[in-house]
Amino acid sequence: MIIQGKDVSNKILAEVKDIISKNKLEIHTVALYFKGDEESKVYFQSIKKNADRVGIDFRITEIGSENLIEEIKRLNDDQGIDSIIIARPFPEGVDSVEVSETIDPDKDLDCISPYNLGRLNYKDYDVAPATAKAAIDILKYNGIKLSGMNSLIINRSITVGRPLSQMLLNEDSTITVAHSKTKNIEELIENNDIVFLAVGKPGYLKATSIKNKKIIVDIGINVVDKKVVGDFEVDGKLDQIDYTPVPGGVGTVTSAEILMNALRLKMRS
Ligand code: NAP
User: Using a 6 Å cutoff on CB, does residue 183 contact ligand 1?
Assistant: First the structure.
């Protein structure tokens, strides 16, 4: 089975739209991207399209890295702004810890503040890092249970692997986290029911190398010959494998999760 993201994304967006209109909410969000980072600008523009659909004001603004902290403080104090997202990765010279500690947790759309990340330790967290949440929701919305499953995450970044491990524990999954120094990853892949892949290397895992029934959640995004591909290579043998495609899988859901975060932050206030 190919586990598609489009329907999941549409369901989340419909839920956001419905709650906004029923509660007559006004949500104003600012997305900051750094001068010259056209990729992030395009990414934010794609989120803005969905924001327009659900009735969220999503303003995209260019910024110089030297003004970032000052601008975050200004937006923190601006009563007319509900939430802020800053394009990542940050340019050289930007202190990511300082940024995450400066942003008001109640305006933290990307869930980077220590407070919001800490709340993931509890089952009742509200906002969540969008990619990790998308990786979980794409399975849940497709009726795939996580409770009691053995899950392998190949990634330990603060954006993906670390929050995902907390959130999967909350779903009663049993977690192994692997990274570039982990030995015998092939064995770990064989011994787990679900593999969350976010290595950033095209062809890192090939379908033909998998021996038993498995679900692959491909979070990787790579560009090869101007085409977007994931880390999982579908090379023919798929009888026992369910997987999320790239494009059309986790990435499609991520944008909807960001808008769900915007709504949840608004509900806090
Ligand atoms: P990252 O910080 O570079 O993390 C890559 C992870 O892969 C690290 O933990 C690294 O281990 C591990 N790794 C590298 N080579 C490995 C190997 N040979 N075997 C096992 N593990 C290995 O990148 P990131 O920001 O987390 O993003 C990861 C991927 O997800 C990228 O392709 C990115 O484009 C994609 N992504 C997708 C979305 C989405 O919405 N779908 C959002 C964000 C990111 P070490 O920690 O030891 O270096």
Answer: no
